[in-house]
């Protein structure tokens, strides 16, 4: 396989509309009960989540998680960190690459700082509106390693939620089982065997800015 036929989604907004329609079919729309809380993983996941929230008549917010990457291989996720709690490490991968969590103190410190900056920029002092009676839909623009989604799911479980759903337009098929162990439901539009990378499945995978994330959140809160 190769070429343009692999680009299943025009951009993140297109993917979000399609994902929102699928989630509505599963009974997550406000018309079917209390409106869920839709949480996007910044930055790209928030663009997808905004469309999902609109389709479901739901509140949009963010939960911030950061990948903990190998110092010399930035694309290799050795673990992840969410807003609260300890880092979630991939023990098998750490062993394979010969790295101990203690070797990653600088990486962890840097990612804690960036995580705190993003929480402040996107949500300020406002807490997440979590409720044991309310469904939560965690949304990303794609699942490659699943590290940040797993860290976020575990953090949300600690806080107490109702039905916990993780959703994305595209995922690596071998990442679905770990997600299913943490979430009540896993909803992916496609999980292609020839996954390679999330961006491969989008025509437009332009990097998302802080300003765009903040704008989407502000528009959602104002009802625009």
What does this structure look like?
- The protein is globular, with a radius of gyration of 17 Å.
- Strands 2-1-6-7-8 form a five-stranded parallel β-sheet, with helices on both faces. Strands 3-4-5 form a three-stranded antiparallel β-sheet.
- The mean pLDDT is 91.
- It folds into two domains: 4-65 and 130-222, Rossmann fold; 68-119, no CATH class.
- It has seven helices and eight strands.
- A hairpin with a 2-residue loop joins β3 and β4.
- α1 (12-25) crosses α2 and α2 packs parallel to α7 (210-222).
- The longest helix is centred in the middle third of the chain and has 18 residues, at 105-122.
- The protein is α/β, with parallel strands linked by helices.
- The chain has helices spanning 12-25, 44-56, 91-97, 105-122, 147-159, 176-182, 210-222; strands at residues 37-40, 59-62, 65-70, 73-82, 88-89, 136-139, 164-170, 185-190.
Q: What are the salient characteristics of this protein?
A:
single chain; alpha/beta; Rossmann fold; 2 domains; five-stranded parallel β-sheet; 7 helices
Main beta sheet, described? 5 strands, parallel
The CATH topology of the largest domain: Rossmann fold
- Give the distance, in angstroms, between the N- and C-terminal Cα atoms: 41 Å
Average pLDDT across residues? 91
Approximately how much helix is present in the residues?
A: 25-40%
- Gross CATH architecture of the largest domain: 3-Layer(aba) Sandwich
The assembly state of the depicted protein chains is single chain
Indicate the low-confidence ranges by residue numbers. none
Would you tell me the structural class of the helices and strands? alpha/beta
Using only C-alpha atoms, the radius of gyration works out to 17 Å
Give the strand line-up of the largest sheet. 2-1-6-7-8
Strand content: 15-25%
> Number of folding domains?
2
**Which CATH first-tier class of the largest domain would you pick?**
Alpha Beta
């Amino acid at each position: 396989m190769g070429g343009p036929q692999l680009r299943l989604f025009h951009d993140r907004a297109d993917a979000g509309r399609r994902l929102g329609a699928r989630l509505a079919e599963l009974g997550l729309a406000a018309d079917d009960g209390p409106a869920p809380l839709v949480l996007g993983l910044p930055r790209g996941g928030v663009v997808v989540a905004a469309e999902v929230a609109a389709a479901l008549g739901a509140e949009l917010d963010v939960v911030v998680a950061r990948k903990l990457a190998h110092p010399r291989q930035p694309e290799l996720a050795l673990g992840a960190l969410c807003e609260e709690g300890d880092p979630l490490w991939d023990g098998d991968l750490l062993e394979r690459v010969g790295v101990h969590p203690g070797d990653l103190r600088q990486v962890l410190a840097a990612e804690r700082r960036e995580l705190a900056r993003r929480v402040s920029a996107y949500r300020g002092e406002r807490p997440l509106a979590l409720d044991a009676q309310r469904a939560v839909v965690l949304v990303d623009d794609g699942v490659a390693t699943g590290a940040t989604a797993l860290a976020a799911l575990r953090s949300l479980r600690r806080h107490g939620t109702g039905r916990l759903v993780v959703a994305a337009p595209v995922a690596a098929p071998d990442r679905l089982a770990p997600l299913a162990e943490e979430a009540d439901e896993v909803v992916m539009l496609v999980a292609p065997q020839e996954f390679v990378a999330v961006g491969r499945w989008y025509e437009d995978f332009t990097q998302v800015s802080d300003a765009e994330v903040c704008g989407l959140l502000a528009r959602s809160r104002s009802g625009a």
